[in-house]
Amino acid sequence: MKILLLGKSGQVGWELQRALAPLGDLIALDRKGEGGLCGDLSDLEGLRLTVRALQPDVIVNAAAYTAVDKAESEPELADLINAQAPALLAEEIRRLGGWLVHYSTDYVFDGSGTKPWQETDAVAPLNRYGQSKLLGEQAIQASGCLHLIFRTSWVYGAHGNNFAKSMLRLAREREQLKVIDDQVGAPTGAELLADVTAHALHSAIDNPTLAGVYHLAAAGEGSWCDYARFVIEQAHSLGETLAVQEIAPIPTSAYPTPAKRPQNSRLDTRKLRHSFGLHLPHWQDGVSRMLKEITGTHA
Ligand SMILES: NC(=O)c1ccc[n+]([C@@H]2O[C@H](COP(=O)([O-])OP(=O)(O)OC[C@H]3O[C@@H](n4cnc5c(N)ncnc54)[C@H](OP(=O)(O)O)[C@@H]3O)[C@@H](O)[C@H]2O)c1
User: Which atom of ligand 1 has the smallest separation from the CA of 13?
Assistant: First the structure.
């Protein structure tokens, strides 16, 4: 099986390089490309030629425009990378009869209520990033290609920038941190996303009825403030020297950003767990493991 991985240097892409390797012949590209192959999602023609040259059985697209606030002022670029490029990948892989694996986000929902979102719930993104990701999902579905779309939330990884690392850095510099306490979700590790992707793909290849959209997030829930507190507690217990004395909860209204964010980012993962027979660990397990890795304290 030949697998083309795009976005190999992102948080999820980095872990996919490891997790997909046992499934087949893996060609992994980032936006720089290599050997005449194009990995830049803003170059649609280059991307088309690359897929036609490689003729993969599976394309895994981990590349995305992920700058949520910047997308408000660059909506065309966000649409090009998050919607037009996935549309092209979907069209090309359908011609080849292969699979497209793609990632999306809970930001396709409006964040109302407190119930975890199911795959069948109505979508209504609050910001341009969410809109661009939704357009990408819709284009893939409309193409008729075999696909797995995993909607996830609050991604972190040892490789890349994320909220946990920012909190750790700020906690070394400041005595007080103010963190939003009225947006709730589940931090989800890039490692978990990559491992579940490999398992799910392995099952789906032999069973096309498994194609579809799945919610994939770690178990449990918390606010950004709960997440920050957990990161700091763990860092303390790992012997980190931190300046922080207090983590103060604040409402979203006290931290205005260009892009509106959903308050309810909870994802109902039953469809994924039942379809693929998988267990999703609690978010604290993965965060604590990542902190051990990045603070260099392997237990
Ligand atoms: N991060 C989150 O909290 C979150 C939450 C929900 C869903 N997701 C989804 O999960 C997936 C993986 O996200 P992630 O956390 O791994 O994001 P990430 O760490 O920001 O990685 C995204 C990658 O895409 C690359 N990229 C951007 N523009 C590109 C282009 N024109 N051509 C090729 N590559 C390009 C980036 O490369 P450069 O570094 O060179 O820019 C980066 O390596 C995405 O689909 C994202 O929408 C993420």
Answer: 16
**Rg of the Cα atoms in the chain:** 19
Instruction: Give how many domains the chain has, as a whole number.
Output: 1
Q: Is residue 247 part of a domain?
A: no
Pocket test for ligand 1, best of 65, 155, 161, 165 (most atoms within 8 A of CB): 155
Range of the structural domain that residue 80 is part of = 2-162+188-220+266-281
> Identity (one letter) of the amino acid at 171?
A
Give dist(CA 63, CA 65) in Å, integer.
7
User: Which CATH number belongs to the domain containing residue 74 in this structure?
Assistant: 3.40.50.720
For residue 9, the CA-to-ligand 1 centroid distance in Å is 9
Residue with structure tokens 């080849």?
Answer: 96
Q: What is the mean pLDDT of residues 176-202?
A: 97
Q: What is the pLDDT of residue 296?
A: 65
**Structural domain includes residue 119:** yes
CA of 287 to the centre of ligand 1 (A): 19
- Is 297's pLDDT higher than 90? no
- The total of other beta-carbon atoms located within 10 Å of residue 291's CB is 24
Q: Say if 158 falls within a structural domain.
A: yes
Q: Active site includes 129? A: yes
Q: Which amino acid is at 233?
A: E
DSSP annotation string for 177-216: EEEE-S-EE--EEHHHHHHHHHHHHHHHHT-GGG-EEEE-
Average pLDDT over residues 59-73: 97
pTM: 0.95
What percentage of the chain has pLDDT greater than the value 90? 93
pLDDT at residue 161 in the model: 87
Q: Which pLDDT does position 298 carry in this prediction?
A: 47
Active-site hit among 103, 107, 129, 214: 129
Residue 77 lies in a domain: yes
